[in-house]
Amino acid sequence: MPVDNKRVRGPEISQSPLLFLPPDSQISKVSSSSGRQGARGNGDIRPLFARCGLVSQAKGSAYLEAGNTKIICSVYGPRETERKDETDMKSGRLVCDFRLAPFSCPKRGAWIQNAEERDLSTALAESLQPGACLHRYPRAQVDVNVVVLENDGSALAHAVTCASMALADAGIEMYDTVLGCALRQDEERCLVDPDLAEERAESSAENQGRVVVALLPNLNQISGLQADGEMREDSLTAAVRTCVEGCHRLYPVVQQAILRAVKKKAAPPPEK
Amino acid sequence: MSPMKLCVPGERLCSVEDCIPGTGTYPRHGSIFASLAGYVLRRNEGEELPIISVVRETEAQLLPDVGAIVTCKVTSINPRFAKVHILYVGSTPLKDRFRGTIRKEDVRATEKDKVETYKSFRPGDIVLAKVISLGDVQSNYLLTTAENELGVVVAHSEAGVQMVPISWCEMQCPRTHNKEFRKVARVQPEYLQA
Amino acid sequence: MAAGFKTAEPLEYHRSFLKESCRPDGRDLGEFRPTTLNIGSISTADGSALVKIGNTTVVCGIKAELAMPTVDAPDKGYIVPNVDLPPLCSSRFRPGPPGEQAQAASQFLADIIDDSNIIKKEDLCIEKSKLCWVLYCDIMCLDYDGNLLDACIITLLAALKNAQLPTVTINKEKDLPEVDTQHKRHLHINKHPVSSSFAVFDDEVIIVDPTTEEESLATALITAVTDEDDQLCAFHKPGGSSLSAEKLHDCISRAVTRNREINKLIDKVTKSIKSSK
Q: Mind telling me which PANTHER family this protein's record contains (chain C) (predicted)?
């Protein structure tokens, strides 16, 4: 293990107190019969709080809260590309950085970006790219930085929504806003916008899976789809359809947040 | 007056038969969609159809483009070229730093072979230039000052005082009265006030 | 042309304001930006706080873990502060390992924790030479507009005040710790250090609570940390132009007033959370 000498170091080994809970009080697993928290229906998304333009230094930014999941995103650029290769000459690049704050999960995470975060960065970039008009920014790159302050499930889906709000706030040209929605398939139950316990719950039953869909709502195109687990084909198609519906339900909140920021930034131009 | 219509990226604005797509919009499948969040503006400009565009508080993301006049600050010079940071495209400030290069042969239009970069620019000078190329894989934006209106607009003398242009190739320090060589732009009045 | 002047000649631009004893954002030379505090908003952390000083936004989350004390100090726990400046907070930071500024800030906080005894590390010991708490204080900047250190110390202090640790007993039979999350206790805050930062312009004009732009143009930066007993815990002036003793005293006395204001603010917010529960 290489020593990280750029940070203040603690003891070599430390363990989360959650490991030493008495066996009977372990965090209760979601049993498939019990209802969801806050009397939420299986198909309901958590109420969304969204704001644009909070980070003063960024070109555009957004903050999103769904239940306890809290995500902040800022967009910088278009600016000079750092790495140059032939493809950059004609169109711009979208560079995504996805991070989970060390205190965002029940167990403390490390500062160094782990494999999961790198995967999520790529997934985020791939979901956003079809939405952005990158050919308008030759030789330039647009940086999208996402930090999850608190992860209570569906982080990637909400990160996609948050990032596209930040892009719109930054005035980056886009074909469409990109919306994200996640789903947890648990046997015959479809839990839309799962919280962390639902997302991580283990089950030995069949037909288990997680699906994340990124949607361009006006063009009605899916720009990102991620599914893992073992699901039947028909459940998967149904799951994607449910996610698309979930995205559409987010749309009014997202729209409002973006427009609010536009109004705040400038009065309407004089009509000629 | 009714409040102006606002839109978010992806909203369908109208059919291509009704308007001509302007900035902040794009046509697809016979319709015009918004690509920016902002106010929807319809303008008649003598054409048959009005131009529809989406405007924001700042102008659309300007990037230095071929032919654009840019304001830059000289960062370093060597006998072959001067390196600059582009600060403005036209009158719009850039939020991020873009680097550009003014090669020796692009400093002025005449007697190109006699140009000496040291007698044309100094680090810290504010220079007006025009973009001639976006550059290739290795190089940055290529700029030129080979026009009367282009060249140094603000420069400080060795004594640290802002100098006054006295000819197209010389500036004078008001404190020490020393003359220094520069490729001077035919100065536009607003820069003198600043 | 004002915007052009600002970009092309930032120093002259600022000087023209300072001459009139005010600043580009409309503040007096000695005025702090509005400071707001939000405590306990992150439920996955054992303690958390978010501080805004003007635009500068910093969030701190504390995670407590169990570890063995060191051999040198068998009756002491650990406090591990780390400051991160992610690319999110400003275009000047790139992804990757922490840069110089983040490292310096982390070390500065670690020194303040050690020197001022915010928390007695003995309080973190559960059983001598066997088990103690580690408090990972992870501080993340979300919006960088100058005066990072002040924001970091306020958020650290507020998060520590907010932190609650579960009760831990050691099961003698199995020799394993047992954690009871039902009964949590607050930490005892021994000292309440708060810092005030200053920037020096042209070797003589001192301004309070500088923004990023002011920081980058200043000839010297100063941070004075005092506690609630008006004691000076740390004084940080990394190089820069020299300063007379009176001016330094002036800085310290301002830091003392600032400390009172901030501690009042922290108390007020903490109380409002308790009453709303």
A: EXOSOME COMPLEX COMPONENT RRP43, EXOSOME COMPLEX EXONUCLEASE RIBOSOMAL RNA PROCESSING PROTEIN
